[in-house]
Amino acid sequence: MLFILLLISVVGYSASAFIILQTVFNGKEHKPASQIIPAGIAIIAHGWLIVQQLAVDDFDHINLSSSLSMVALFVTVTSFIRFQRFSNLFLKPIIYLFSALTCVLLVFTPVHLGADISSKHALFIHIALSLIAYGILALATLYAIQTSYLSRILKQRKSHSLLNKLPPLMTIERNFFNLLALGTVALFVALGSGFLFLEDMFAQNQAHKTILTSLAAVIYLIALVLHRVSGLRGRLIVLLTLTASTLLTLGYFGSRFVKDFLIG
After folding, report:
1. Residues 134, 79 share a domain
2. Of the residues 90, 118, 146, which one is the last residue of a structural domain?
3. Contact at 8 Å (CB) between 111 and 61?
4. What are the pLDDT digits (tens) for 9-64?
5. What is the DSSP letter of 17?
6. Cα dihedral across residues 198, 204, 207, 209: positive or negative
């Protein structure tokens, strides 16, 4: 059953990504349903795959692969819901292909690896909030990259085929800052839940996560304050966002990668 769901997810995501790439780069028009239906089926299979894989271990453990797969599903669903808008058309193939990759990692990673959440409800709440925050900020980071790319094209003042497929820069920037604000709030809530529910956020095996995540949250907040106060946008905001996202990724998944895959 797992491999059937995996096959449906990978094929659906890949087919939808391929159709979108044809539209963006080759100008080949397709009916919206041709990319919506495969993606929709893949999302359903992806969600069911996560449930089936975690059920093997009675939902007792969560590891790097399952965390990434849940984040990918969250980002994919958010992107899919916005299919009528072109502001994320350029990002969808990246999101879909990454989701397909996380499905493969999910199935081939031993389910018993990772944190034991069977009797730790507070830990589960903290992890859930953290994954939601990461998913929103990951999407914001993709928008930041898209903003930087579109800005560079516009500064060249040359005709570019992608300009006809992308929305105005201001639209993308507005979506980026909205996501950044929402994700930053969610990240501070996740941090707060950790300090509230967990015994010691600065324990030996948690200190680096707490420090890196806190630094990331502060940098995200600085980017937002600079934008709100001075209207700053562009390269510096993108750089701050990428820096914070890198720190957040290291804080969330760095040690988990070592424990789950290198040490086992």
Report:
1. no
2. 118
3. yes
4. 999 999 999 988 887 776 666 677 888 899 999 999 999 999 999 888 887 888 88
5. H
6. negative
Q: Tell me the C-alpha distance between 96 and 60, whole Å.
A: 28
Determine the Cα–Cα distance for residues 173 and 144; give it in Å rounded to an integer.
8
Domain that holds residue 6: 1-118
78, 25 Cβ separation under 8 angstroms: no
Q: Are residues 159 and 51 in the same domain?
A: no
Q: Which of 243, 167, 249, 257 is nearest to 213 (CA)?
A: 249
pLDDT digits over 164-176, tens only?
Answer: 666 677 888 888 9
pLDDT for 96-139, tens place per residue?
999 999 999 999 988 877 777 766 677 788 888 999 999 999 99
* Angle in degrees, 0-180, between the axes of helices 33-55 and 2-26, rounded to the nearest 10: 150
234: DSSP letter: S
Same domain? For 27 and 5 the reply is yes
Do residues 78 and 139 lie in contact, with contact meaning Cβ atoms separated by under 8 Å? yes
How many structural domains comprise the chain?
2
Q: 201 by DSSP, 3-state: which?
A: coil
Contact, 248 vs 135, CB < 8 A? no
Same domain membership, residue 182 and residue 107: no
| The amino acid at 53 | Q
